[in-house]
Amino acid sequence: MNLLEKLKETVMSVAPIMVIVLILGLTAAPIGGALIAQFLIGGVLLIGGLTVFLLGVELGTQPIGEEVGAALTRRRNLPLLLVVAFVTGFFVTVAEPDVEVLADQLWNVNRGVNKDMLVVMIALGVGLLVSVGLLRTVLKLPYNVILIVLYGVTFALAAKAPGEFLAVGFDAGGATTGPMTVPFIMALGVGVAAVRQGSNDSFGLTGIASIGPIAMVLLFGILAGPGSGTQGAAEAVEDTADLGLFIRLAPEVFKEVLGALTPMAVLFAVFQFTLLKLPPRRLLRVVTGLVYSFIGLNVFFLGAKGGFVPTGTRLGEALGRFTLSGGPWAEALVVAVGALFGAVVVCAEPAIWVLTKEVEAVSGGAIKRKVLLVTLMMGVASAIALSMVRVLQGFSLWYYLVPGYALALALTLFCPRLFTAIAFDSGGVASGPMTSTFILAFTLGISSARGGNPVTDAFGVIALVAMIPLIAIQLLGLLYRQGQGRVSP
Q1: Would the pTM of this model clear 0.85, i.e. be above it?
Q2: Which of 264, 249, 224, 345 has its CA nearest to residue 299?
């Protein structure tokens, strides 16, 4: 796919979000002309950055993961494979921009959490579960059994963890699988499965990896003790637009993205000299892809942080105040807006395009990319609508998590194996940088305006975005089995 085709895809993905925000910002939730201009600039940067990033993933990140996974598997050294998987998962996650965004937003409203320790625990979870996922692939263990065991342990930890860590823990599972982590982990799994000659094991590694951060954050909460996550007060959000924010953010974003890609580049250099030994032409292609990824991520996060986060927060505050005076119909409007945002924001997630393309390729076209996208749009729309209901009513996240995951895990017993793996991968990739920035900021704004507790009310939206696709994609798998019979059981 060339650059112009990728640009067309990203414009079609991001433009609907911009149109919705403009309509709301000029009507029901006025946010001012200066902030709208700031948002438009951010949108243009986001489109350009996403386009270049996707090109870089295609050239660099995915080939690295596939080559490393295949090379390690051919050596038939299981301990080496698992150690490399852990180290790779840990360092890529430490540098994952989405994790930093989540930690920053949590720290802004809750100064009682040690942000650095939170990031380390999340990275440990990813490293451990990537190793578990690859061990499952090598030993060809049943995917649904692994999921049921891992989620059983996770919910046991959730029952003992302080309440303020529940939403943050499940949010961490979604935020971890961002634009750097997903392509590499997914490609690593595909590379291992290719050598093992098991196409049905090509997917599912991201779904397993996303469980680790949940469990480790909940364990962090248990060790920290009750009340450790409720200290400090939320920072006030400035009520003015700032077009100079992009310039001031540039060094910070540059540092974050450099940190995100440096471990990847160092690991690739080590792999190149020890495992891969790629010829010069292929080596140049991978290096070019990493450069494109670096440029694209800089521009993408500059647009997201400089335009989308402040606009999402202000828009949420305006709609939150609107619900206080407008009554039930105003609340219904907020729920509808949440659903609309969910339907369009999922298409702007960078990893979604990577996953859906890989699924269509590996399935030989049996699973159409457009069908997956529509299913994910419907699922994420439902997730964010349900999140808006929870923010407005203020009830516990448990009311969603217990029945939701019980249904998702029950479906693994009946759904085709390939669709189950794709579903649990989709849950992670659907909750990427757009959800971690714009949607979370939007939800925090609503909670703040209504006088709620953002730690317990607003956090959890990423968790639902990660959970609903598990159900939606598996239901799609059951429909495929009934209607086409072209996907193995």
Answers
A1: no
A2: 249
